[in-house]
Write a structure and sequence with these properties.
By secondary structure, this protein is mainly alpha-helical. Helices cover about 70% and strands about 0% of the residues.
Amino acid sequence: MTAWKKLSKISLLGLLGLVIAMEPALAEDAPTTEVQYILNSFLFLVCGFLVMFMAAGFAMLESGLVRSKNTATICLKNIVLYAVSGFMFYLVGYNLMYSGVDGGFMGSFSIWSADDAAALGGDFGGGYASASDWFFQMVFVATAASVVSGTVAERIKLWPFLGFVVVLSGFIYPVIGSWQWGGGWLSEMGFYDFAGSTLVHSTGGWAALTGAIILGARKGKYDSEGRVTPIPGANLPLATLGTFILWLGWFGFNGGSQLALGTAADAVAISNIFVNTNIAAVGGTIAAAILTQIVYKKVDLSMTLNGAIGGLVSITAGPDTPSIAAAFLIGAVGGVIVVFVVPLLDKLKIDDVVGAVSAHLACGIWGTMIVPATNADTSFVTQAIGVVSIGAFVIVASSIVWTILKVTVGIRCSEEDEELGLDRAELGMEAYPEFGRGSQTM
């Protein structure tokens, strides 16, 4: 070995030793707690973006499953309900859900404001930027309201519907959320709902069910003998696009509910949650497609789309603990539930335009109740208490609000407006004007 090579080798070893010696100092300059703070905040923001995009998914799904004469109204409802939900969550919802619950039944009535003084002063013990948490929690609210929108479509007035959204997003949903995610009485009892099968989806489903019953069915949906007259949606490709958008957004919905990305264990957990979320939707889709072929002798697209959503709702209560096979089965049962609950509602003459009650309420209950099968820290009794108590509260609260709206301003449009279409009756426009007015009475 030449003298130059020996010198180079010594220099390389010296440089390596210097890097090793400097490592604690570098770590000291960028503490792990600060890195965790950044990554946790990043998780909330990115997953919040995905959940927000679910609003577009609901808008497209519902637009595809209503008749063309009501399409613009559905689009308007979905963008305004998202805005109203966000404003109400800022005004009262967040603090009602999280501030000072302490094992009780609700938080405080106050306007939320960000407080990051500790982090800006170098103390990262809070775990994440407060606004990142608020944003992530806020986008969940609109999901519950969107469930209601699809169920009561094509015959509800715009402004009374938005009035109900004000109460749902500002009071009903935050109170329910405080019981579990805010550290309330259900949380103290040991109830488990990781990302909201019951807290979000069943809450929206119960509110939608009570609304559909009080509102009544669309004109011509059921004849005097109770037979169902199918009213097909105007744009199934659009409904399919909406389902794919919802599927994508659900990774943020469930993955972000890990609430941390500061360790390798968090990264592993989120990866597993993503896979379980995806495979549950796969199970729901396949089960619904096969079952409709068996039952109806033809595969039903709209039922298959709801099967995918049913699978996603079913896994949302516990996406963190099942094996991949178990997640597939949980989602598949959700797909089966959708296929059987849709005709059951029709037999009861409950008109659910987009099948939201089946996919969100029924599958939300199933997903919540099956959690103890894969999570030994939970119990079927506690899960049942949570499902029943939340259902009872939402039914009573929603029924009161719907009834007050009905007897004061009225919630249902006139028969003439329903026949004409709400786009022209309430908005004075048409979603597809180039098709001509004659097509709008389809």
